[in-house]
Protein: Alpha/beta hydrolase
Amino acid sequence: MDIVLIAGMWLDGSAWDDVVPELERLGHRPQALTLPGQGDGNTAATYDDQVAAILSAVDATDGPAFVVGHSAACALAWVAADARPEKVARVALVGGMPNGDGETYFGFFAPVDGVVPFPGWEPFEGPDSDDMSAELKASVAAGAIAVPAAVTQGTIHLTDERRYGVPVTMVCPEYSPAQAKEWMESGDIPELAKSTSVDFVDIDSGHWPMFTQPAALAALIDEAARS
Structure:
């Protein structure tokens, strides 16, 4: 199956380097995206540029596409389902949830001099990063990419309710499937509450399983692709 992989904030397509060969071994055609402004050197990139790049990747697939978003990019994966509900066969949300229409894409950290730099590991202490060695943290931080504010401050636009018919797999890393279900049922994830098919799967990792559990993550993506 064609699988489009979108890493979260501060990461480029190389974040999936250990996942891609596992997916290929399982018979899939993965494509790890490097988004505009997030690894391509385009400091003037906007949120709309990132959405356009994702839709271009989806449109270029031979058959139905499985779109996998990580962290903040779960919102982008959901936007792809909204824009291409007839083309996106499934969405996987790894460690994140979809934003609602009209919401800011990524408002958790304020821009500094026109970009949102990686804030260091302090905000992610605890379950998010407990499974990462000091060496791995240093490596990820060294490669982190400051994301243009025109990306992070972009506005989510959702227009096609057919997105609610696109099956969703929630991959739960630093939180449990039970917690994710509770958030959805309590109305904290309104977009998913309207979805007709949501599966919850656990992975024993922190917030960045592509680094700490790449084979296990690939296996879960493979299982979801075949369901």
